[in-house]
Write a structure and sequence with these properties.
With 270 residues, the chain is α+β, with helices and mostly antiparallel strands. It contains 5 helices and 15 strands.
């Protein structure tokens, strides 16, 4: 059973289009909210003497600024913070730094998980023209597949590029993006998505075609070797290249020939 008390102050101002760099900032808008949050979680277990109760008090929220549009360009920043107080063990860290504690290995209810934090949750540049918009940076996004989970103190956020196009006649928005990092709602760290997905057990990386690019007439296509290089730069995992011109594939071919034909003169092998 959970008991929740939430008080919120919302800060909003309105901006329009600007025709100079000075007006881009002077006509910008402030946004944000300040919350007081109390949570108490009671857990009942079947075995005797195992019932637990955890609670927490915190004040936090978001404070940010978004510029007015200048020839379609905008800038936006949002600071996010949560500050716990009057914390009695055991602490419900779901409005504090639970994910920091898990990431640091001290547990969801340990000292690190009980810490307050502040983070630059959003810092992005965007451009829009007619029905098309594109942005890059840290941002809070809400789509059917990716949602900010803004149900406690702070939302989760991502880092990367997003683009969208709106079809007015069909009332349809199509969006796509390339995301590199994400931040959990109870953490101040943006974590590399690939490293997080691989976890502590890094898998071997076998590359059948180590080419970075390939000529395709009037353009160059990106090949598997490029993505292997990106993974190596991100995770540190050394790729094992099997395709030309690396020796592994030729050694395997020689071994198969030996199995079929027996010994052959090495001088006959280029």
């Amino acid at each position: 059973m959970k008991k929740i008390i939430l008080s919120t102050i919302v800060i909003v101002s309105v901006s329009g289009a600007a025709d100079t760099l000075l007006k881009m900032f002077s006509q910008g808008k402030a946004h944000g909210n300040i919350k007081y949050y109390y949570i108490q979680t009671d857990k009942q277990n079947d075995t005797p003497y195992k019932d637990t109760s955890a609670n927490a008090n915190a004040v936090g929220g978001q404070l940010g600024f978004e510029t007015a549009s200048l020839t379609g360009w905008k800038l936006k920043t949002t600071f996010m913070f949560t500050n716990g107080f009057l914390l009695d063990d055991p602490v419900d860290t779901s409005i504090l730094s639970r994910d920091n504690g898990i990431r640091l290995g001290t547990g969801a209810g340990g000292k690190d998980a009980q810490e307050s934090f502040a983070v630059l949750g959003e810092a992005l540049i965007s451009y829009s023209v007619e029905n098309f918009s594109i942005n890059y940076g840290r941002q809070v996004i809400k789509t059917p597949l990716i949602h900010a989970k803004e149900v406690r103190m702070l939302p989760s956020a991502v880092q990367g590029a997003m683009a969208s196009y709106r079809f007015d006649t069909a009332k349809l928005d199509i969006s796509g993006g390339y995301l590199t990092h994400f931040k959990q709602r109870t953490s101040d760290q943006f974590i590399n998505i690939q490293k997080h997905a691989l976890g502590a057990k890094m898998r071997p990386m076998l590359v059948g075609n180590p080419d970075l690019v390939a000529p395709r007439g009037s353009y160059m296509s990106i090949e598997p070797g490029y993505f292997a290089w990106m993974l190596h730069e991100t995770t540190g995992v050394e790729p094992q290249n099997f395709g030309k011109p690396h020796a592994r594939v030729f050694e395997q071919a020689k071994q198969r020939i030996l199995q079929v034909l027996g010994l052959i003169d090495p001088a006959r092998v280029l």
